[in-house]
Design goal:
Largest interface: A-B, 34 and 31 residues
Order of helices and strands of chain B: HHHHEEHHHHHHHH
Structural class of chain B: mainly alpha
Distance between the termini of chain B: 24 Å
Number of strands of chain A: 14
CATH class of the largest domain in chain A: Alpha Beta
Number of strands of chain B: 2
Helix content of chain A: 25-40%
Number of helices of chain B: 12
Structural class of chain A: alpha/beta
Number of domains of chain A: 2
Number of helices of chain A: 10
CATH superfamily of the largest domain in chain A: P-loop containing nucleotide triphosphate hydrolases
Strand content of chain A: 25-35%
Oligomer: heterodimer
Strand content of chain B: under 5%
CATH architecture of the largest domain in chain A: 3-Layer(aba) Sandwich
Largest sheet of chain A: 6 strands, mixed
Number of domains of chain B: 1
């Protein structure tokens, strides 16, 4: 079976000489929920731009469901839906018109376009706003409008470029549920996000790009396993006067009632709690200092940066 | 895309364009009506009555075809340049660029939108002129085909301007500094036979002269230029502008990085 996306040795150098992609190769399987992560300027949006033909590649090959984007551009584009990072719809048009018009660009007859627009607008809680000019929508509604527009031709591949940026947590979670639902129904999804919790919750595979090169490409479980230690923040019932010392754990007192404990993966936490209890310190709550994936992400980027600067020296 | 899907895509762009200029009718349809009513009153009734005949017709009758043509070409141009650039500015042009629409369909859709507005304005201004004078159309076929071809040509010019434009200032430079002078010097208000031979020759390089005179031939049956040559020039300019516009879209200039 063909991959949903198959990228081979992709290069992109912009007119100003900036080399955004320096030989990216990547496969995304059909039905996958794939995270493409990287810091700002790493090349994520350039890859997405090339996939949806808004950016012209300098060299390399890209196939969408086995269709080369150079030789079968129309068929390849039919399979892609895009939800871009920035709002790119006419602010003066009505919500319904924007979505229905997009269907027309894909050659869908008016009756099909109308029924699909109604379906996706109801699904994304936009139906009440169908006659509202797009500029009158809230930020969250504008994001949902772009998702409905991206799905109107029912693409086999949906590309989401930071779809939940600036969206409140309640709405973000409802969008996650919706995306999981369409992924289960068979739509392949590529997601870029700066919310790493989002990537960890939704995605099965992940690629990390830094300075135009893929530095990690694996499944989420294998990646999380690479994390050798985690930092927990613990709130204590009693005020602390000194920092407790427990062999095998690195502990910092960051406030009178707060400890930060670095714990190696696989360590028996009961041993830590018993040792703290023995010192009359009782933990009332605990949480990860940072998302697990976030810790790994920062670590991998730092390793890559130091490797590159070492090679340059 | 098969032929049916391509037809739907074309229709979609055209309907969107018509919906745009009718939604903002106060900015698009009303101003030319007011401007032309003033032209008819001032140049036709007030000043025209003192000028007397021109080309065997009253000055009002002489000037009406030129003013209709002036409205058609400026509005066809304005429609495409503002719509296409507006879509670029808001990035909503990406909706069309990521879809499987061939570039020639995008071009045809915008041009059809410009033609629709040009014809709409042409009809309104013609009806308005009937309050001021009588028109006995001499050659319906010539009149309609000149309006159509002129709308196509200036829609193409508007699209080329919009592709190069980087700010809203850029979409008003050509109409102000090129289109308006050429229109005023293109025989709208006078017969070039009134000019000295040198300026008559200079006027021959103004493309708008051919459109105005061909249209006047269709309406009144008189023209300062050979009608076949005028059609030839208009079609030549359409081919050149159309090929250039297609080249720009295929290259993705100002649209794809």
């Amino acid at each position: 079976m063909d991959c949903a996306v198959s990228i081979h040795n992709l290069h992109k150098t912009y007119d100003n000489g900036f080399s955004a992609l320096k030989g990216v190769s990547l496969d995304v399987n059909q039905g996958d929920f794939f995270a493409l992560l990287g810091p700002n300027g790493a090349g994520k949006s350039t890859i997405i731009g090339i996939l949806c033909s808004l950016v012209r590649k300098t060299s390399g090959n890209v196939k969408i469901f086995g269709l080369d984007i150079d030789t079968h551009f129309a068929e390849a584009r039919k399979n892609i839906g895009v939800v871009p990072q920035e709002f790119n719809f006419s602010q003066f048009e009505k919500v319904f018109d924007i979505i229905k018009t997009q269907a027309g660009y894909y050659g869908l007859p008016s009756s099909v376009a109308k029924s699909r627009a109604e379906f996706y607008m109801k699904k994304l809680d936009l139906w009440d706003k169908r006659n509202t000019p797009a500029r009158m929508l809230s930020g969250g509604m504008k994001r949902r409008l772009m998702i409905a527009r991206g799905l109107i031709h029912e693409p086999r591949l949906l590309i989401l470029d930071e779809p939940t940026a600036g969206v409140d947590i309640e709405l973000r979670r409802s969008m996650w549920e919706f995306l999981q639902e369409i992924n289960k129904a068979g739509t392949t999804i590529i997601l870029t996000t700066h919310y790493l919790e989002e990537a960890e919750n939704l995605c099965r595979h992940i690629a990390i790009i830094n300075k135009g090169l893929i530095i990690e490409n694996t499944d989420m479980k294998s990646l999380i396993k690479q994390l050798d230690q985690e930092t927990f923040v613990m709130d204590t019932r009693e005020a602390l006067t000194t920092t407790p010392a427990i062999p095998g754990f690195v502990i910092h007192k960051t406030d009178t009632h707060v400890l930060e404990v670095e714990i190696k993966r696989g360590t028996d936490l009961n041993h830590l709690f018993n040792a703290l209890s023995a010192q009359d310190i009782h933990i009332v709550s605990m949480r990860n200092k940072a998302n697990r994936l976030e810790e790994l992400f920062v670590k991998l980027l730092n390793q890559d940066d130091s490797h590159k600067s070492g090679a340059a020296a | 895309m098969n032929a049916y899907e391509t037809w739907i895509a074309f229709q979609t762009i055209l309907i969107r364009e018509i919906r745009r200029f009718t939604r903002i009718w106060v900015q698009t349809l009303l101003p030319p009506v007011i401007t032309m009513a003033l032209y008819f009153v001032i140049f036709g009734t007030l000043i025209g009555s003192r000028i007397g005949e021109m080309g065997g017709f009253s000055y009002m009758q002489f000037v009406v075809p030129g003013l209709i043509m002036m409205s058609v070409l400026t509005n066809a141009y304005a429609n495409v340049v503002s719509s296409f650039y507006g879509n670029k500015f808001q990035r909503s042009i990406e909706e069309q660029l990521i879809a499987p629409i061939p570039n020639w369909v995008i071009l045809a859709g915008y041009i059809a939108g410009g033609v629709a507005r040009g014809l709409c304005i042409g009809l309104i201004v013609t009806l308005l002129s009937l309050f001021f004078t009588h028109l006995h159309i001499q050659h319906w076929g010539v009149m309609v085909s000149v309006v159509l071809l002129t709308s196509i040509l200036f829609s193409l010019a508007g699209l080329i301007n919009a592709v190069y434009a980087k700010s809203f200032d850029d979409i008003s430079i050509i109409p102000t500094f090129v289109l308006t002078p050429l229109t005023y010097l293109g025989g709208v208000f006078y017969s070039i036979n009134l000019l000295p031979p040198f300026w008559q020759a200079v006027s021959q390089i103004n493309p708008i002269l051919y459109m105005v005179n061909a249209f006047r031939y269709g309406v009144l049956g008189i023209s300062d230029v050979n009608i076949h040559f005028a059609f030839g020039m208009i079609i030549f300019f359409i081919i050149v502008a159309g090929a250039f516009a297609m080249h720009l879209l295929n290259k993705g200039r100002g649209l794809r990085s």
